[in-house]
Amino acid sequence: MSFARLFRIFSTFLQFGLDKLIPARFLPWYAKVFRMCFFWIGNKHKDKTPAQRFRLAIESLGPVFIKFGQMLSTRRDLLPEDFANELALLQDQVEPFSGEQAEKIVRKAIGESLYNEHFAEFDTNPLASASIAQVHAASMTLDGETHQIVVKVLRPGIEKIIRADIKLMSVIASLVAKWLPDGKRLRPVEVVKEYERTIIDELDLMREGANAIQLKRNFSQGDASDKILYVPEVYSKFCHKNVLVMERIYGIGVGEVEKLKSLNVNMKVLADRGVEVFFTQVFRDSFFHADMHPGNVFVDVTNPDDPTWIAIDCGIVGTLNREDKRYLAENFVAFFNRDYRKVAELHVDSGWVPANTSVDEFEFAIRTVCEPIFNKPLAEISFGQVLVNLFNTARRFNMEVQPQLVLLQKTLLYIEGLGRQLYPQLDLWQTAKPYLESWVKEQMGVKAVFEKIKDNLPFWNEKLPEIPDLVYDYLRVGKQAHETQKELINQALAKQDSQHKQLLNSVIGAGFVVSAALLAVAKLPIIAAITGVVGGVFVIKALTASTRD
C-alpha cells in the first residue's frame, strides 16, 4: 500500500471538509486526536454544499476515483439525491497519453508484420481520452478493401494504478462503514467490491470485443424490427487484452438534442425505440448493454424519419436468467396495475426477500411508497425511480443485493433519462406496458408450453430409445431394493425379539439375585444359594445374548 497516496487521499478529504460529514459525537476520542494532528489542513471550500465538496474531492483524486464516482451516481438507492445528482456531473475526460506510445502498444500487441500488412494509417492524435483507455482513428486494408476503424488502447500501467487505488478505497470504505452514522446502510465495502468487479472486467478489451459481437448478433437477425440498434463490427483478428479494433461509426451523440432537432429527426420515434431497445435486450435476449450513458450512444440520422441507435463501449453488460426475467416482467405488470399484493408475493417467491417475510407488511410498505407516485400523471412518473423505490423498500425487508438487478436499474435510469431528454412527453409506462404484457403472455401461455416442448424434442428424441432399458433397470433395482428392505426388516424384528428376551432374562436374573440376598439375610443359606444359582443362570443367558448381538 502506498502511504504517500493514502496521505494524498486523506488530505484531500480534509481540504474539502469531508470529515465534517461525520458528526463529532460519533467519533471516539482517538479519532479526534488524530484529526487534530493535521490541524494545518482545513476546509478550503466552506462556501460549497457537502455534495459539491464530495464531487470536487473525487475529481481531484484522478481518473480511478472519477470512474468510481460515476458508478456511485447510479446507486440512487444508497445516496441522498443531492449527492447522486452532483456525482452525475463527473466528466471522464482526462489528459491523453502520448499517441506515439499508443501506436507502439498497438504494434506490440498485434505484431509488427500483421500491423505493417494491414494498417495503412494511425492518427496519433486521440479522438477521445478517458480514465482507462483512449481511442485513435486509423485505416486498415482487409480483403482488398480499405476500412475506417478506431483503435482503443488501454493506458499503460493502468491496472497497477487501479488495483492500488482499490486497496485504498477498501480501507476508506471500512472506516466509513464503522464511523459514519449511516455507514451500515450505505454498505460502502460492498459498493467498492462491486466497483472492483466492474472496472477489472473493463481492463480486458477482449471481453469488451466479445460482448460487442454478441450484442451485434442479437440485433442482426434479419428482422426489420432488429434494425433499431446498430453495433459497430469488431475485428477480432487484431484484438488483444489491451487493444480493441473496431469499425468507425459516424453518428450524432444522443445528447446533442438541438442538432438532432435541426436535422428534423423524428424524436418521438427515437425515444420510443430507446425503450424498445432496452426491453428487447432484457426480455428477449437476456443480454443487455449496462453502460448506455450519452457518451456511449449515438444516432444514425441517414433517414431522419427512421433513426437508428448506435451503441459503443460494451465493457459492461448484464444478463438475466429465465426466472429473473419472468419475475421482473410480472413485477412490472403488477406495478402497472397497482397490484402491490402480487409484487410482494413475487419478491418472496423469487427468493429476493426471506421466505419468512410477512407478505401483508411488505405489501403495505410497497403501497406506502408507490401510491403517492401514482397520483401524478403517468407521463410524469419515472419508471427508474419506481424501481429504485421498490428495491429500497425490499432492502428494508432484508432483500439481498442482486448484482444483475443493480445493472438493470442503472441501465433503465440511463435509457429513461435519454428518452425524456429527446422527447419530454415520453410516456414510458404506456410504451412499455403492452410489450411486457405480451412477453408475459408468450412466456406463460399455451404457445409457450408448445415452444418448450418443441425445444426439448431433440433431447427426448435422443433419450427415447433408452427408455425401455431405463424402465427395466428401474423395476429390477426396485425389486432388489424390496427384497433387501424385507431382509432388513426381518433382521430388525429378530434383533428386537432378542433384545426383548435379553431384557426379560436380565430382569428375572436380577430378581433372583435380589431374592437370594434377602434370603441370606434371613439366614436361609440353602434356599439363598439355590435362588442365587438360578438368578446367575438368567444373568449369564442375558450376557450371552448381548455378546452375540
UniProtKB/TrEMBL annotation:
InterPro entries: ABC1_dom, Kinase-like_dom_sf, UbiB, UbiB_bact, UbiB_kinase. The chain crosses the membrane at residues 526-544. Coiled coil: none annotated. This is Probable protein kinase UbiB. It is found in: Cell membrane. HAMAP family: UbiB. It is a single-pass membrane protein.
